Structure to design on (607 residues):
């Protein structure tokens, strides 16, 4: 009779899991045991989505052990516009510092990559969405100028929602500033390798991130100029499947390759040995 | 009939009344000139009063005014023998950006600017001044021609932003903008950039890497539109944002010419006639002409190496930060 009757007890039977033990994949939406993801370099074992990781994790992944030396470590954001929305920018910065365990959205410095010296700049999405304000712009140009002066390969790892709104026009100008840095670096004839991770958008993609001599993306990362919601609202249409994924960009000729996180270090080292130096 | 903005209502009523009186008096032997004169003075005072306290959001409305002069208006008013060049040689032509060479006061120059279009049909054709990648690539192509032929570059900026659409993404909107930014730092010829209306984010900046960056008094220049900013930062749960939030966002973003001069982002403000550039296009174009002439003269004194060094440093120093001792 009641063959469609709901099992009312279903909710009470749910096991309560301690928070953080499981994670949901952004791409396939599967719920996965966190340890399994962690052991796999934070790659989804079901669909190969590469989870966002911190700048420190990135550096551990890419730099030879103990070789990374951070530059610009003392640089901190101020609040140039006295920006206040529903929260003060100053408070947002404080929260971001506590939450993300890092003092800004960019970390930069020289490192060895399988023995090859290079300058690294890494963005951290967990710090205010990896957004680019004065400090990110300054750290990037410091790194690029150091690479120019010392004639070393430059490697950037992007993961960012774009320019930092709370610094207004000053953030916008960081796009020009970082692009200026690349225009000078290119004269060294050393490679600039840009790695795009999930997500890379707006002011970051429309400046240094898309200026790489070689551009690599992590699988399934979302990369674009305008965010998908903005585009949907503008064109009043649903976006096609796979739009703005790394695979979409590769197909449209916007990037050179898609590389699994496990092979990223080796790929970068290869590119450096094939392009840098005068042998 | 002029197009009036909300906050101009009081002055609109008065000006319409003056128009009516003029029509009535026309051809008839009526002595109302003194009356009209009095009303005109009153209207001017009222306008001056309104404009002395306009908010950043109201300025945004003036910057977007449908009668505001556009790139092609300035080209017509300031130059002779304009020859428009089309296409990026890669994919197509983009009518949202106009580019070409013209004779500016006896000096051949490259002139490149966003073009919004007037009237519904042209607005759609020009995509409301929102370029696709091919627009930026055309701009860069013409800038490189200017470098090759040793002509100064004038860019006129007026866009809500680079177009956010499927095809724009497919053809590399980010790459097109980024390439312009990088390449403009290497162009061995003077570049003068003027924000004439709306300076909408990266889509504006992609034409605005200049040795001189100027703004018209009632133009705006920002990392995001007040509407976009409000939608992200002022949205609570499912509440809709509106004029109140746009006012707050426009204020917070510091996007007016006075703000940008104050922040050291621009070199100079070009004054507009009372009520905005559209009240007298000729007067506005004359003001721009004078500033451009002076800037070209000044920049031509410099060697290209000096120019590039100064252009780099101009943007290199933008940023506000502090150094704090990090705890171990």
């Amino acid at each position: 009779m009641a063959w469609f009757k709901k099992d009312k007890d279903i909710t009470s039977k749910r096991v309560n899991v301690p928070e953080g033990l499981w994670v949901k994949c952004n791409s396939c939406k599967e719920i996965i045991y966190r340890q399994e993801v962690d052991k796999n370099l934070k790659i989804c074992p079901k669909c190969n989505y590469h989870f966002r990781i911190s700048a420190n994790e990135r550096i551990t992944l890419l730099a030879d052990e103990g070789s990374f030396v951070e530059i610009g470590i003392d640089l901190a954001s101020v609040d140039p516009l006295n920006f206040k929305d529903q929260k003060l920018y100053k408070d947002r910065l404080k929260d971001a510092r506590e939450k993300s365990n890092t003092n800004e959205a960019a970390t930069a410095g020289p490192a060895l990559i399988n023995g090859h010296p290079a300058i690294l700049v890494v963005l951290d999405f967990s710090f205010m969405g990896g957004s680019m304000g004065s400090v990110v712009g300054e750290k990037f140009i410091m790194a690029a100028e150091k690479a120019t002066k010392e004639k070393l390969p430059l490697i950037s790892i992007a993961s960012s929602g774009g320019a930092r709104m709370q610094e207004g026009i000053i953030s916008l100008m960081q796009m020009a500033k970082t692009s200026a840095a690349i225009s000078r670096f290119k004269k060294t004839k050393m490679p600039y390798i840009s790695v795009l991770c999930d997500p890379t958008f707006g002011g970051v993609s429309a400046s240094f991130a898309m200026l790489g001599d070689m551009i690599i993306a992590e699988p399934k990362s979302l990369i674009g100029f305008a965010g998908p919601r903005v585009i949907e609202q503008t064109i009043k249409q649903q976006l096609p499947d796979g739009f703005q994924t790394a695979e979409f960009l590769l197909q449209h000729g916007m990037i050179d390759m898609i590389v699994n996180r496990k092979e990223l270090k080796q790929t970068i080292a290869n590119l450096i040995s094939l392009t840098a130096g005068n042998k | 009939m002029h197009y009036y903005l909300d906050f101009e209502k009081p002055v609109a009523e008065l000006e319409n009344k003056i128009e009516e009186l003029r029509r009535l008096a026309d051809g008839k032997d009526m002595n109302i000139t003194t009356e009209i004169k009095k009303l005109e003075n009153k209207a001017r005072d009222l306008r001056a009063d309104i404009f002395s306290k306009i908010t950043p959001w109201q300025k945004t409305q003036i910057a977007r005014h449908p009668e505001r002069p556009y790139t092609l208006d300035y080209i017509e008013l300031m130059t002779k023998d304009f020859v428009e060049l089309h296409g990026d040689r890669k994919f197509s032509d983009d009518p949202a950006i106009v580019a070409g060479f013209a004779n500016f006061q006896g000096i051949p120059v490259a002139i490149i600017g966003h073009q919004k279009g007037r009237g519904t049909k042209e607005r759609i054709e020009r995509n409301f001044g929102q370029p696709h990648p091919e627009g930026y690539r055309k701009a860069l192509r013409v800038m490189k021609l200017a470098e090759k032929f040793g002509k100064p570059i004038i860019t006129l900026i007026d866009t809500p932003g680079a177009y956010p659409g499927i095809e724009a993404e497919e053809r590399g909107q980010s790459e097109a903008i980024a390439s312009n930014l990088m390449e403009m730092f290497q162009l061995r010829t003077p570049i003068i950039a003027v924000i004439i209306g709306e300076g909408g984010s990266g889509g504006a900046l992609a034409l605005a890497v200049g040795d001189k960056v100027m703004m018209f008094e009632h133009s705006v220049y920002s990392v995001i539109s007040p509407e976009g900013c409000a939608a992200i930062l002022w949205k609570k749960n499912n509440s809709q944002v509106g004029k109140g939030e746009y006012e707050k966002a426009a204020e917070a973003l510091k996007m007016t010419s006075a703000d940008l001069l104050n922040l050291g982002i621009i070199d100079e403000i070009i004054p507009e006639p009372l009520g905005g550039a559209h009240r007298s296009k000729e007067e506005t174009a004359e003001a721009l002409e004078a500033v451009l002439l002076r800037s070209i003269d000044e920049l031509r004194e410099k060697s290209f190496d000096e120019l590039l060094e100064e252009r780099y440093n101009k943007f290199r120093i933008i940023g506000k930060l502090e150094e704090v001792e990090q705890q171990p």
Summary: The mean pLDDT of chain B is 94. Chain B touches chain A through 59 residues (CB under 8 Å). The domain at 60-316 of chain B is CATH 3.90.226.10 (2-enoyl-CoA Hydratase; Chain A, domain 1).
